[in-house]
Amino acid sequence: MSRPLAIVTGASSGIGYELAKLCAENGHDLVIAADQSKIHEAANDFRALGAEVEAIEADLSTLDGVDKLYAAARGRPVEVLMANAGHGLGHGFLDQDFTDARHVVDTNITGTIYLIQKVARDMVARRQGRILITGSIAGFMPGSFQAVYNGTKAFINSFAFALRNEIKDSGVTVTDLMPGATETEFFDRADMEDTKVGSGKKDDPAMVAKVGWDAMMNGEGDVVAGWKNKLQSAIANITPAGMLAEQHRKQAEPGSGQA
Description:
The protein is α/β, with parallel strands linked by helices. The chain has a single domain (5-252), classed as Rossmann fold. Helices cover 47% and strands 15% of the residues. The chain is built from ten helices and seven strands. A seven-stranded parallel β-sheet has the order 3-2-1-4-5-6-7, with helices on both faces. It is globular and about 50 Å long. The termini are far apart. 48% of the residues are buried.
């Protein structure tokens, strides 16, 4: 029990997997969660790095799923929380099944902030801990043909800054990691592989995770992964929303990635 404990969500693949790997490589035990059975394969990888690992397969869009994850820590102090779980949904909002749209909202927002509240209360009581929240540069722009996802990330980006300010004197840090398009299962799960952004070149999830890890360890408030994404987010701050929506449409409209 001498090793610090980290909780990482969405850790079966992509950015979450790489974040959990960094935790293991840097001497942390792990409680990891995802809504896929692959989480158990990932756990074996992290055990090979010397970590004690508890893997939880749960739907983190539900309060019960989050409670199951939180209970898996068995009261052990959580030194690091990486709230990374999330997914997208392509196509026009009016063409989406509302159950699917709600699942995006409940995973990206409801489950995320519920877990953060439970863990952060413990951290603040101990006056020690680090929280990394995976937001997105998508939160800076209206997401035509990805409207619900971008809206959830706008919420998460804002929430991260607000929480950081509220607990700034508590000894607990909050860092918002804002990646751009990354080479993960995201676009497949969101049914966006035929879009320009889905079929285009993307960032390496290991690079994105390392940028987030370093920012968290340095106590930074936010970090955008990748210089192109830094430029894009800076431009988004001075571009009219209608123009941003049209630009996003060209990237995310179904069929836009086909020759």
